[in-house]
Specification:
The complex is a heterodimer.
Chain A: H1 42-55, E1 58-60, E2 68-70, E3 78-80, E4 88-90, E5 98-100, E6 108-110, E7 118-120, E8 128-130, E9 138-140, E10 148-153, E11 168-173, E12 188-193
Chain B: E1 2-7, E2 14-19, E3 24-29, H1 36-44, E4 47-53, H2 59-71, E5 75-78, E6 82-83, E7 86-90, E8 96-99, E9 102-107, E10 118-121, E11 124-128, E12 131-132, E13 135-136, H3 142-155, E14 164-167, E15 173-174, H4 175-181, H5 191-197
Parallel strand pairs in B: 3-4, 4-5, 5-7, 11-14
Antiparallel strand pairs in B: 1-2, 2-3, 6-7, 8-9, 9-10, 10-11, 12-13, 14-15
The chains are: A mainly beta, B alpha/beta.
Chain lengths: 211, 198
């Protein structure tokens, strides 16, 4: 399992078996030698994955891509190199969790609680995030580019080096956050609050060039 | 295979360490700064740095190299024959290596003066400063920028969606994400016209 990194970040493993269907570029889902799409019993896989998530608090190299989960309480769990790509997460509690090198790209995240979690080198890009809570998080080096985010709070969070490039943010609050080196370029902001945050140290220009 | 990320709070760049699960010969990618935390990361995992891959031979990528070479008997790989006083294995587009049990492909996707390489290891792509989450490297002029964007589109975005992109600056991303979201490659996100006029 992952160990604490001396400077606060964590180590992670990142290698997955390929789907057994030779022409398929996807990774095999956890509990199967095939991806979810090529699985004979996707619903069984999902049930097994739910049981696995509840069975242990430390998770590494899980591929749950494309699965749907609702109502799970996964608070205080640790996730390292886990794939949640294109998952549908509803009412899932991830409070005080840690995530390192996890991928939630193009996920649907509704009514989920990530409060007080440590989220580093993780990807939420392209996700739809609705009525969710990221308050009190260390959300460092995290990719939230292109998210479609509605009625969600990032209050009291450290967002150092995270990115919201080309994101659509509506009724989203960043109250009392650290926004140093956070990029909002090309983002559409509607009813977004940066009260008490150092938004002067964030980047709102549209030039998509690395330093 | 185990992947570690180290962030230098001095020069704000990411260094990646890749090695076997149980320790042993390891690969460092872009060791911008050698500091105590990076040393602890290497030694704590029982690793010996045998190979150092550089995506781009600018100062941000080189600070750590001199120190590392005093500690470890490591080989350097880049697109130059020499770095400091050290001989480098000069790599070009398409060159393949087997280091620490891992197959690595060097790719020149810079589309400019050929001064950068990216390295592919299975589903991981180490892009240096050429391509990050929602951003690309600085170019000398619009023409060079256009070449770079075209080259990335043809070479990188043609790879599988699930390939993880691990840049020297900022957070990770994936090929699928950049293709769909990066404003430089996606017209719906404001795209090429904004970038070209930037």
């Amino acid at each position: 399992m992952s160990n604490a990194h001396p400077c606060g970040y964590r180590e992670a493993m990142l290698s997955f078996a390929k789907c057994a269907v030779s022409s398929c570029p996807e990774h095999a889902a956890t509990g199967s030698d095939r991806c979810l799409r090529h699985s004979d019993s996707p619903e069984e896989l999902r049930h097994a994955a739910s049981a696995l998530l509840l069975q242990s608090r430390e998770h590494e190299r899980l591929n749950l891509s494309g699965m749907s989960f609702s109502g799970l309480d996964l608070s205080e769990h640790q996730f390292s190199s886990c794939l949640f790509s294109r998952t549908d997460l509803r009412g899932v509690a991830f409070r005080r969790c840690s995530f390192t090198l996890c991928f939630f790209d193009f996920a649907e995240i509704t009514d989920c609680a990530f409060g007080e979690s440590k989220i580093m080198y993780t990807v939420f890009a392209g996700s739809k995030i609705v009525q969710s809570d990221f308050s009190g998080c260390d959300l460092l080096h995290t990719n939230l580019n292109g998210i479609d985010c509605l009625d969600t709070k990032f209050d009291d969070s450290d967002l150092y080096f995270s990115r919201f490039i080309a994101a659509h943010l509506t009724s989203v609050s960043f109250i009392d956050c650290n926004l140093k080196k956070v990029y909002f370029s090309a983002a559409q902001l509607n009813q977004v609050s940066f009260k008490y945050s150092n938004y002067e140290e964030a980047e709102f220009k549209e030039d998509p060039i690395l330093p | 295979m185990r992947l570690f990320v180290h962030f230098s709070v001095t020069i704000f760049t990411n260094t990646y360490l890749v090695g076997p699960d149980q320790g042993g010969d390891a690969i460092l990618i872009d060791p911008g700064m050698m500091d105590v935390q990076l040393l602890k990361l290497i030694e704590g995992g029982n690793y010996r740095v045998r190979s150092i891959l550089l995506t781009h031979a600018n100062q941000d990528r080189l600070h750590g190299v001199k120190t590392l070479l005093k500690i470890y008997d490591a080989e350097l790989y880049s697109n130059r024959p020499h770095i400091y006083d050290c001989t480098c294995h000069k790599l070009s587009d398409g060159d393949r290596l087997s280091l620490s049990g891992l197959d690595i492909e060097a790719m020149d996707v810079s589309g400019r003066a050929g001064d950068s390489l990216v390295y592919r290891m299975g589903d991981l792509l180490f892009t240096g400063d050429l391509l990050g989450a929602g951003r690309v490297a600085k170019s000398l002029n619009r023409y060079a920028r256009s070449l770079l964007v075209s080259s990335i589109r043809e070479r990188v975005l043609a790879l599988g969606d699930s390939i993880a992109i691990l840049p020297a600056f900022g957070p990770p991303t994936t090929v699928g994400v950049e293709r769909a979201i990066n404003p430089l490659f996606n017209e719906e996100r404001g795209g090429q016209s904004r970038q070209e006029g930037a």
